[in-house]
Amino acid sequence: MPTPSASRQMTAQAAPHAKYLTQSAPRYTSYPTAPHFGAAVDAEIYRGWLRALPADEPISLYLHVPFCRQLCWYCGCNMKLATRDAPISAYIRSLLAEIDLLSDALPARMRVSHLHWGGGTPTAMAPEDLAQVMGRLRELFDFTDDAEIAIEGDPRTMTAAMIERIGALGFTRASFGVQEFDPQVQKAINRVQPPEMVAECVAQLRAAGVSGVNFDLIYGLPHQTAAKLARTVALCAEIRPDRVALFGYAHVPWMAKKQRLIDEAALPGAAARLEQAETAAAAFRAVGYEPVGLDHFALAEDPLAAAARSGRLRRNFQGYTVDAAEALIGLGATSIGRTPSGYLQNIAETGAWARAVAAGVLPVGKGVAFDGEDRLRGWAIEQVMCFGAVDLGEAAARFGAAPDWWRLEREKLDELAADGLIEIDGDQVRTTEAGRPLVRVVAACFDQYLARAAARHSAAV
């Protein structure tokens, strides 16, 4: 495992790229990105998109539960603090009704290849509510034999009854927001969970039949250091999750008001964030995890690592995935989905979302239809984000574009090449080892919307 001093040396070697460390860039879980969604996409347009889906191709489902039992100050998700069960149960009744609306809008009884419960904290609901929703889904959809069924959970509030029900319902993967195990950092972000608590929860889930376990870690947190994060990696390695996502903390208090409780003076600067990211990445490699895309790591036998090696890796709103479905359907307030025609997002406010559902209307809040070069550029950005490389000639051939479709981006790409972040060989663009942490900056070169956007994004590292 690299020492903090070794990591500082790596950071010093990256100094020529310092000007990019604080450059803001989207995370590119979609293209166009969410700030460019608008009201032009409504329920009727979405209904047409759903009707146009090929009936013989599988779809993915994402179900959003915007409730948590405890408040984490770093979180930028759309969530509500739930101290009672009643609001969650009412939400689940509306979710069931939305599932019925979706089923009626589809061209046929569809197959599901991937299902993901996110939030918020889906395990904040009662086990009976989870079982009721899963039962409704199985009534209305057919699940493929190899379908991944995943759920996000909080080990601080996960009950034995919920763990038992998750196993009985056939879930194949569970994800936990570990973030950091250092007690000082945990206190500073209001998420106190000793490693022993997480390890016990993982052990119980595996015993219940959940074969895959994911951890989320965050660098750039208040009072965090490279040494503390290295210790957290070592503790995670003892628990042995199959996958780990290592995200940079996005301090966006203008969007996530709870982040105003974070002491900004305790946040590490750009150079320290890079040191933490490099230290953690090297530490994961040292204990047998393969790097996947920008910020994920997986054991060699995990399907995500295999997809990265074989070129089948994809990226969507759940991050890096093996999910190959062209349609990802979002259910629940604020959920985002994708069809071959465009992106859409449900109404964010839970009351308005529930009223739309009760009125029998697909609860679309906004979206964007693919237009012009959106599919071409989205594919190029996904290639960069997944593999750190893109064949611009292949992109042109795939989407019927002119061979020099990227001529306007050449000046930006040449600058990145001069700074050592990428190499350009004909139509081939590849990130260098030094450029790998800045892959979002490389991907941004192909974003036609970024320059005209008023949206604020998190720092690239």
Write up this protein.
With 461 residues, the chain is of the alpha/beta class. The strands form five sheets. It has a nine-stranded mixed sheet with strand order 9-10-8-7-6-5-4-1-13, with helices on both faces. Strands 14-15-16 form a three-stranded antiparallel sheet, covered by helices on one side. It has a three-stranded antiparallel sheet with strand order 17-19-18. 37% of the residues lie in helices and 21% in strands. The two termini are 21 Å apart. It has two domains: 31-330, TIM Barrel (Alpha-Beta Barrel), CATH 3.20.20.70; 374-452, Arc Repressor Mutant, subunit A, CATH 1.10.10. It is built from 16 helices and 19 strands. It is globular and about 60 Å long.
Give a short synopsis of this structure.
By secondary structure, this protein is α/β, with parallel strands linked by helices. The protein has 16 helices and 19 strands.
- First CA to last CA: what distance? 21 Å
**Residue-averaged pLDDT, rounded?**
93
Computed over alpha carbons, the radius of gyration is: 22 Å
Low-confidence stretches: 1-14
Largest sheet features: 9 strands, mixed
| Strand elements, count | 19
CATH H-tier superfamily of the largest domain:
Aldolase class I
In CATH, the architecture of the largest domain is Alpha-Beta Barrel
